[in-house]
Amino acid sequence: MIAKPPALHPFLVPLLPTLILYSRNFDSVAPGNAVAPIVATLAATLLAWAALKASRLDGRSAALVASAAVVLAFGFAPAARRAGRLGVAGPQGRGWVALGLEAAALVGFALLVRRRPGVARRLTRPADAAALGLVAVSAFGLASRSVGDPATRPPTPRIDPLPALTRPELPPDVYFLILDAYGRSDVLKERYGFDNGPFLDRLERKGFRIARRSTSNYVQTALSIAATLNFRYLDELGGSPASNRAPLRTLIAESAVIRAFRSQGYRIASFASGFGPTELAGVADEYLAPPVHLGDFAMLLVNQTPLGRFGGPLRPHAMHRERILRAFDRLPGVGGGDAPTFCLVHIVGPHPPFVFGADGRDVSAREGAYSLSDAEGWRAAEGHGGAEGYVARYRDQARYLTGRVEEAVDRILARSKARPIIIIQGDHGPGGHLNGMAAEPNDLDERAGILNAWLLPGAEKEDWDDAITPVNTFRVILDRTFRAGRSTHLMGRLIGSST
Fold this sequence. Notes:
Elements: H1 9-12, H2 16-24, H3 35-54, H4 59-74, H5 76-85, H6 94-115, H7 117-147, E1 174-179, H8 185-192, H9 197-205, E2 209-210, H10 221-230, H11 246-253, H12 256-263, E3 267-271, E4 286-288, H13 296-303, H14 307-310, H15 316-330, E5 341-347, H16 376-379, H17 386-415, E6 421-426, H18 444-448, E7 452-455, H19 473-482
Parallel strand pairs: 1-5, 1-6, 3-4, 3-5
Antiparallel strand pairs: 2-7, 6-7
């Protein structure tokens, strides 16, 4: 006969943080991203339960303390914010205050249930019922949203057939480096006090062409990258619903560009980005990630716990820095093999979070809670300093990353057997002054102006569209490299969207 567990709530409470966060991000997070956090939280809770039982707590008491530890752990970030609002401590001290109070509460509760076993007996069944009810409500809400109203369900993105392609005798390696929120030179100089003109001049001496009047086609990352990788506007592909962004993951992972290069014998390489839609772990032939790597959804969960501040290499800001540093370190060694390589690299920077000083030092301690929020989302966060703070931190991070880009380009060129194609492109501009929640986003000059630099061997002296937009990037490249017949450019359009 199988013994009945003394409590059910230790099996249910660990599900709640992930279910609640996933329900809030349902439209932008792949369902599979919720599995690992649930398994990890459940395993940690059951291990804590076993350890507490080994410390001479009875089964019910140990279960209550383990579940309480989960609740307190994921309540850490709200507790720290509350301490800040109450003026209990400054930005650096509020985490310690919250940790101390929660530790004291947990120890006090453990002592209570150990000294009074009757407390555990009285609380177990109500705790089971409450946990079961909360899980059921969360699961029902997710199921309802999954089925949804057919009228509001996101359209299935259209995956168009590829144009006829002809592989050249010596196909070049192709590097597509997306620098998130890297603005156009005039915007950076006039609004951010950062003159990257010398960097652009050096690129031109290496053979790059610079589109000095280039603008993005969309003002959000996933929209912009999906359009670029399909060389089509999203309204033609069913990929731009107002609220549900799930189709964008498909449009990026199964993009026309990736399929085109793969059809011509290219090896697909990509790096961990920390941004769900551009995480290509199941798509790329070579996916490079740091030893300690979590996706954006898992990092949001970690950020709710003390690990978000005191977790060392598990701190989300530390993982973010390591991803970027590792990408720049490893990028030059990706190509040059027997098979040609198409390498897609999405660097979430100089977009927030701001984790690099101008000299590369770690400045993440002043960032507070980890977030990929930009524009007013970043500016409004406590301790960030509004537009002035954004401009200063963006400038420093952009200055450092610009140096790393140039270093990577030099190393790629030095290692390449044949001259590669290199595209360095912002997906959109910075958001120091943007109000993306407005019905009509303001300051689109700042948000739309982007860095757009191409090294396209053989085209150095050809006519150049100084205002070319990203949606035409691979029309040109596929036409020149594989004679794809996509030489007709789409008219440049900027399509705003609320953040």
